[in-house]
Amino acid sequence: MNFTIALSALLACWIISFYITKSVFSAVAWAPHDLLSLLINAVIGFCIFGVGIAIVGKFFRRREHYFLDDMLEALKRISQGDFRVNLEWEFGRNNEQQRHPYVQLVDSINSMAANLKEMEELRQEFISNVSHEIGSPLTSISGFAKALKNDKLDVEQRQRYLTIIETECFRLSKLSDNLLKLAVLDSERQPFHPTTYRLDKQLVSLILACEPQWEEKKIEMSVEADELEISADEDLMSQVWLNLIHNGIKFTPESGKITISLSRTEEHAVVCIADTGPGIDEQDYTRIFERFYKADKSRVRAVGGSGLGLSIAHKIMELHRGSIAVQSKLGEGTEFTVSLPLRLDRAEA
Predict the structure, then answer these.
(1) Which of 76, 160, 266, 338 is most buried, by the most CB atoms less than 10 A from its CB?
(2) Which residues have a Cβ under 8 Å from the Cβ of 9 and sit 6 or more positions away?
């Protein structure tokens, strides 16, 4: 496209040169040889073309200079943490001009600024959530520790305050462990050692390990597990099942029911964990696996939890090339469905 424009401009300069020389030759009554006339026309045409290029180039250089100033200013703002950058520069957005290097550069800088802005917002939200989750138990611990200094407290009150302090300390410890797990999973430094084992045996073993919790709430536990062998990291998958089972126990009311099933679908193992708890609003489906997100903050606060368990489960499933989905209705309970490949390729392992 640019070559065609340049060639057309050069031809136009030669035509202009032809009429100029023709007028001059007529005025001085000189008729040079055809070859000499052709050479004179060519030289003058090139001179006109060069002058035109110099004039137009000066205009474009000024535009490019402004653009480079804007680009450097944008990069400087980004380096200082200001990601509200949106460069606008018209180089044309059609056909060949779409591949203009400046167009690509502008798009890249705008895309980078948008991504960094999104990451910064997530970082700020993460810090805010962590501060809140750490600050709440620390406030409780501090308040009840001061109350224990009162010599007039009876044994029962002291015991109750100490139990609260112990619970809040456990909550902080669990939060710290979960944050560490997420950090390791995010860094992709998590040891990943898939082995072949019986998934049905693993599920039954973990359900029995949680028996004191669901027995205490008189929850009916229904388990249907087909005999199934998979290739996965057994320790990591234990975290997934425990997080989902504990969630079910936590949100299922007394005398409720939890149903756990294991079946095979083509090349995947499918585990469904359903409870008869309060359920989740449909508008929360897309955010339920976000860190610290709590569909019902008052409910979660009452039963405990930091909102990291489902994030950890989701991250582990991504590591296994599997998936985890939620289906729920308010007042009708919640069902989590985990789909896990039966075999992992060597490249994935």
Answers:
(1) 338
(2) 49, 52
Q: How far apart are CA 59 and CA 50, in angstroms?
A: 14
Question: What pLDDT, on a 0 to 100 scale, did the predictor assign at position 96?
Answer: 46
134, part of any domain: yes
The crossing angle, in degrees rounded to 10, of helices 34-79 and 101-147 is 0
The reply to whether the predicted model has a pTM over 0.90 is: no
Residue 91 has which token pair? 């180089």
111: in domain: no
Q: Are 252 and 221 in contact (CB under 8 A)?
A: no
Rounded distance between C-alpha atoms, residue 186 and residue 188, angstroms:
5
Distance CA 273, CA 263 (A): 12
Question: pLDDT digits over 137-167, tens only?
Answer: 788 888 888 888 888 888 888 898 898 888 8
Q: Which domain holds residue 164?
A: 127-186
232: domain CATH number is 3.30.565.10
Please report which residue ranges of the chain form alpha helices under DSSP H. 2-27, 34-79, 101-147, 155-186, 199-209, 211-216, 234-251, 297-303, 309-319
Contact 290, 311 (CB under 8 A): yes
Kindly give, in sequence order, each residue whose CB lies less than 8 Å from that of residue 247, ignoring residues fewer than 6 positions away. 275, 309, 310, 336
- Of 80, 67, 64, which is closest to residue 113 (Cα–Cα)? 80
**SS3 of 277, please?**
coil
Instruction: Please tell me the distance from the alpha carbon of residue 10 to that of residue 343, in angstroms, as a whole number.
Output: 67
225 closest CA partner among 206, 203, 245: 203
φ and ψ of 283, to 5 deg: -70, -15
Residues 213 and 303 in one domain: yes
Residues of the chain with pLDDT under 50: 1, 91-96, 297-303, 346-347, 349
- At 198, phi and psi to the nearest 5? -85, 115
